[in-house]
Amino acid sequence: MQRSQRTHSRADATAVKRPKSKPRLKIRPGTGRTTAAAARPSKPRGGETAVEQLRLAEGTVLAADSVAAVEIRPSGTVVSRRPLAVAKRSPVLHVPMQSAVPAAPPAWMLEECRVAPARAGDQNEILQLLAGLPTPPSRAEFHAAVDHPDHDAANRLVARLAGRIVGHVEVVPRDIMLGATAPGTADGITVRGAVIDRVAVLPECRGAGHGQRLVQSAEDRMRQLGAVVAFSRTRIAPSFHELGWSVLARDCATPGRPAEILARLLEGPQRAGEAVTMRQWRHVELPAILRIYRQNAARFVGPLERNENYSRWLVSRGAFDSILVALVGQDRYDLHETTARIVGYCVQAGHRVLEIMADPEFPGLEQDILARVCGEAIENDRQEIVYESHAADPLHAAVTGGESLVQSGDRMIVAKVLRPADLLGALVPAVASRAAAAGIRETVELGLEAPGFRGSVIVADGKAALHVGRVGRSYLKLADDELARLLLGQCDPVEAAAAGRLESSTQVAIKLAGQLFPRMPLWCPLWDDLPA
């Protein structure tokens, strides 16, 4: 009993001696005032306040919204926090977030670039730039361009900005055919031309005019090479049109199922004549293939003049999978075609049919070659083939069973006449033949007035002559791009006059223009431009 009383007395003494607790210091957010009446911030440590001590202790500045209260106790400082109203967890997005593309390029990208020929050490950077094209060239094809018969290192132009290559364009000199000299003949008109290929600009530098500077520099280079007309395949035809280029046509590519195509060909009228044999080609048969190509290309505008050196380079580049030839006679290894004569061929690249050509003495042979192609596609379990040719080719209807279907995303063919007087001078013999075929016996004169050319063509006594500087009484007034369409056989004067693209001084001028510069089929073979 005495021990318990002593314990109680000790507890009471401790309770009496315990000092009173200090008033709590509460700091409410946004006010900075304490809730305790006698609590003013003291400076127990070197003059710092309690909040400053808390900042020094934690090493960071506390946000006023996140602190509910700060209590100073003998055991230490207690900070009460409350969750922020805006501190919600963001939703989990399974789609990668892409940063917004700025509407305008930075200022340094708007500076004028410097266009110059590429150097030997620029190959890797150019290949990296061209990798962004829809059909980028391979490294092997890039190096194979050095073996081109007309290769010149100065024809590859690059645009540099701040020491970095931001654009590329390649000029390829070529001899271009512009139709037959006389109707029904195999002699074609050939002029010196060039092709603009692989125009590319870095995506982050687009919209600053670098592409236009590249194309303009390429035009200057082509004029230095003596090119009369320039062609190009492009998916940005409006940009070329702003620079004065003429939009001629679209590449025609018709897809179809081999089984359905073969059924339509077998149900239609069959070719009558000598039987042919088809097989894979041999390299010694390249001259025969060139002969058939020239027999057909003379009636088109746009094909290249393929000589033997160029054709061997085209074959060695490897931009095809197989070449099928059709021949008559006994199939033997014959270098001079004495026992077997090749009368047709077909060039294929995968499921794409690039060229089907036949000797004009064997009409309808193209259908037999296409039937053989469809048969091989069925054997190889190919569900679709794409036939690519000019728009006037009747095989497009055979492939699709009706009207030709053009695949979306196909490129447009654009052209620009660099030397109108030289082009008209090359067309003078054909103009005289067309006038004779139209039954024109009297002397006629047609004037052409454009911003880049002023002159007239005079036809008299079955001959034609060009006079630069005068237009005469009957003339046409038109823009440079429409003049290019007229000279290249892609303009209907009556339709152009109705659309307001040209003005005529007399009705005779429109009729005469239709006779001297009639519409002609356009064909730019895809095999020459197909990436290997």
CATH class of the largest domain: Alpha Beta
Q: How many helices in DSSP terms?
A: 15
What count of structural domains? 4
The total beta strand count reads: 21
Outline type: globular
Level-2 CATH architecture of the largest domain: 3-Layer(aba) Sandwich
Q: Given the helix and strand composition, which structural class is it?
A: alpha+beta
| Helical fraction | 25-40%
Poorly predicted runs are 1-47, 58-64
Essential attributes:
alpha+beta; Aminopeptidase; globular; disordered N terminus
Task: Annotate the secondary structure layout.
Layout: H1 2-17, H2 50-58, E1 67-73, E2 76-81, E3 114-117, H3 123-130, H4 139-144, E4 156-161, E5 164-180, E6 188-201, H5 210-224, E7 229-234, H6 237-242, E8 246-250, E9 252-256, H7 258-267, E10 277-280, H8 286-297, E11 301-304, H9 308-317, E12 322-329, E13 340-349, E14 352-358, H10 365-379, E15 385-389, H11 395-400, E16 412-417, H12 420-437, E17 444-450, E18 453-460, E19 463-468, E20 475-478, H13 480-487, H14 493-499, E21 502-504, H15 507-516
Parallel strand pairs: 6-7, 14-15, 17-20
Antiparallel strand pairs: 1-2, 3-4, 4-5, 5-6, 5-11, 7-16, 8-16, 9-15, 10-12, 12-13, 13-14, 17-18, 18-19, 20-21
Helix pairs in contact: 7-10
How does this model look, in words?
The chain is an alpha+beta fold and 532 residues long. The chain folds into four domains: 16-81, no CATH class; 112-251, Aminopeptidase; 255-403, Aminopeptidase, CATH 3.40.630; 419-516, Nonspecific Lipid-transfer Protein, Chain A (2-Layer Sandwich). It is built from 15 helices and 21 strands. The chain has helices at residues 2-17, 50-58, 123-130, 139-144, 210-224, 237-242, 258-267, 286-297, 308-317, 365-379, 395-400, 420-437, 480-487, 493-499, 507-516; strands at residues 67-73, 76-81, 114-117, 156-161, 164-180, 188-201, 229-234, 246-250, 252-256, 277-280, 301-304, 322-329, 340-349, 352-358, 385-389, 412-417, 444-450, 453-460, 463-468, 475-478, 502-504. Strands 3, 4, 5, 6, 7, 8, 11 and 16 form an eight-stranded mixed beta sheet that branches. Strands 9-15-14-13-12-10 form a six-stranded mixed beta sheet. The longest helix has 18 residues, at 420-437. The termini are far apart.
